[in-house]
């Protein structure tokens, strides 16, 4: 059984740990570079991306995270974690950096200007036929993606219908919503499968 880390600097770490364990993974909370070395995949949770970035810097995790992701570590980011995995951000805090890895531009607090939090059905490619009941909390959206990025989910209905809210690029994936909160762990299953397949290949 592969070990999936949850970046545990800030955010809803416990909920992701539970969801991953429900999906059959072994988990490890990651706060130090040596813990990062021990995982086969990594979840970057929801929370607050500027705080997560500052803590990653002071815990000396930013460069190790970049290196491992560049070297092919599977990673999944939810909400603030999506921002962390974006190569480019719009409306970030002054000087805000990301880990990067996914060739996309993410707009921080994009939905938040109109409505702080909401729920919506999202059809997710490769995760079954029923729409995913997605919870958005001061969520970003994906403004644009590069050629290698597959769009796997778009917001459905309302003024923001069609906005990109889930993407995958090889071993990296991200959602603007919080699949750890609803008890429907399809996204965590999907990621755990991706990690399993990657470890079998290597
Ligand atoms: N608005 C937050 C940020 O900028 C993300 C919110 C969330 O993760 N629920 O990081």
UniProtKB/TrEMBL annotation:
Biological process according to GO: L-glutamine catabolic process; pyridoxal phosphate biosynthetic process; pyridoxine metabolic process
Sample GO molecular function, one term: pyridoxal 5'-phosphate synthase (glutamine hydrolysing) activity
Record keywords: Glutamine amidotransferase, Hydrolase, Lyase, Pyridoxal phosphate
Catalytic activity: L-glutamine + H2O = L-glutamate + NH4(+); aldehydo-D-ribose 5-phosphate + D-glyceraldehyde 3-phosphate + L-glutamine = pyridoxal 5'-phosphate + L-glutamate + phosphate + 3 H2O + H(+)
SUPFAM superfamilies given in the database record: Class I glutamine amidotransferase-like
EC nos: 4.3.3.6, 3.5.1.2
Tree of life domain: Bacteria
Gene Ontology cellular-component terms listed: cytosol; glutaminase complex
Secretion signal, residue range per the UniProt entry: none
Pathway participation: Cofactor biosynthesis; pyridoxal 5'-phosphate biosynthesis
Catalytic center residues: 79 (nucleophile), 178 (charge relay system), 180 (charge relay system)
Pfam family of the protein (one): SNO
Residues binding L-glutamine, per UniProt: 47-49, 108, 137-138
Subunit relationships: In the presence of PdxS, forms a dodecamer of heterodimers. Only shows activity in the heterodimer.
Function: Catalyzes the hydrolysis of glutamine to glutamate and ammonia as part of the biosynthesis of pyridoxal 5'-phosphate. The resulting ammonia molecule is channeled to the active site of PdxS.
Similarity remark: Belongs to the glutaminase PdxT/SNO family.
NCBIfam families, alphabetized: PLP_synth_Pdx2
Protein's recorded name: Pyridoxal 5'-phosphate synthase subunit PdxT
Organism of origin: Actinomadura livida
